[in-house]
Amino acid sequence: MSRGLLSLVAAVVALGALVAVGLGTLVTSDSGPVRSSLAQAAAEQFLGSYVDPDGRVVRRDQGGDTVSEGQAYAMLLATAAGQEEVFASVWGWTQDNLRRPDGLLSWQWRDGEVVDAESAADADLDAARALVLAGERFGREEWSRDGLRLGRDVLEHETVLTGAGRVLTAGTWVRDAPYEVNPSYASPAASAVLAKASGDPRWAELQAGNHQVNQALVKDGQLPPDWARVQRDGSIEVTGGPGGEPARFGYDAARVSLRYAESCDPQHRELAAQLTDELSSTTPARAVYDLAGSPQTTDTHPLADASKAAALAAAGEHTAAMQALDDADATLQATPTYYGAAWAALGRVMLTDDVLGGCPPLEQAA
User: Parallel, antiparallel, or unpaired: how do β-strands 66-67 and 108-110 relate?
Assistant: First the structure.
């Protein structure tokens, strides 16, 4: 039986049993700190289900393509789960197939070749974070060096100085003002990891600028949008998506509360907590809301549950947050998807364990 199939079987059995009894028992891993067995099982489920033996992460429910985001998710989860061999294969495939001349990652690969060479800044930032952390965890200095180099390339090619401060753009395809930004690409924990490892003051600038933009977007009880624009003078405009979608809180923006809830900065956690009322307005959580918090679909999704859990956790409502994480697992079991599996796992890891360099608000509750 293949490594991937063995991992999948083990993870599904473990995850199903844990969800059934509703317990977050703690286990000790020889390769890392004590963590929730639910988080370990969720990470292994994603890695076993979507990572091919050569290290390619396959979006099996989305035509079988590969995107840089998925490679970065697998690198984060392999680091969290202590899977050094999996990490090595994923990063190796990524370098061989997605690496651009400027050091960043091409966004999309299909049928043996890159079909969209533009970058996606969230993937580059997540991958840089994963490399630095994996280098530290597995004693692989070359990975740490790769992470610092990739982080430097993010700063050079995917950030701009505006009146709001240094801001992460959506990717290298954003070349002129107004700058397209995706609020959920900002990752305070990733910036902090890279700042500590590199000593580069631009990471602190990026944290401050991104926070100023996202704080402006959630003022007056609004949910953050999937997409926005920042002018050179720092003024901010809510927009619809690149594909013509209306302004909404959807499959992108739902990541904002997760990325901010895991931050060690109380101001960032407060931003996540501000979303609690809107994201708790329906049970189960819905996949898409308008910016005032009204559901725009009856669809459910593990990311929606994890996003709700993050807001609740940031607000100190730990019991309700743990239930929302369990809801994410149940939603995933009912409808397994690549993106759902990624965020059911990442959500639980980010919120319950410090293995990814954050300050998990549910660490004691897991």
Answer: antiparallel
Output the six-digit token pair for 365: 């509750």
Question: pTM for this one?
Answer: 0.91
Give residue 64's region: left, alpha or beta (phi > 0; psi -120 to 50): left
Instruction: Give burial (CB, 10 Å; 0-12/13-18/19+) of 99.
Output: middle
> Residue 175 corresponds to which tokens in the numbers above?
């070349």
Residue 17 to residue 224: CA distance in whole angstroms: 35
Per DSSP bridges, beta strands 108-110 and 113-116 are: antiparallel
As separate numbers, helices (DSSP H) first and strands (DSSP E) second, the chain gives: 14, 10
Cα dihedral 10→306→24→26 (10° resolution): 80
pLDDT tens readout for residues 288-302: 999 999 999 999 999
Give which of 134, 124, 129 is closest to 81, Cα–Cα.
134
How far apart CA 161 and CA 167 sit, in angstroms, is 6
How many residues are present in the chain? Answer: 366
H-state helical runs in 82-201: 84-98, 121-138, 141-157, 188-198
Joined together, the tokens standing for residue 144 give: 């740490």
Are the beta carbons of 314 and 347 closer than 8 angstroms?
A: no
99: Cβ contacts below 8 Å, ≥ 6 apart: 105, 106
**How many whole angstroms separate alpha carbon 55 and alpha carbon 92?**
7
- What are the backbone dihedrals phi and psi of residue 124, each rounded to the nearest 5 degrees, phi first? -65, -40
CA distance 257 to 20: 27
Main-chain phi, psi angles of 131, to 5 degrees: -65, -45
Q: How confident is the model at residue 35 (pLDDT cuts 50, 70, 90)?
A: low
pLDDT tens readout for residues 207-236: 999 999 999 999 989 999 999 999 999 999
- Domain borders along the chain are 3-356
> CA-to-CA distance for 361 and 366, rounded, in angstroms?
10
Look up residue 149 and give its amino acid: R
CATH number of 3-356: 1.50.10.10
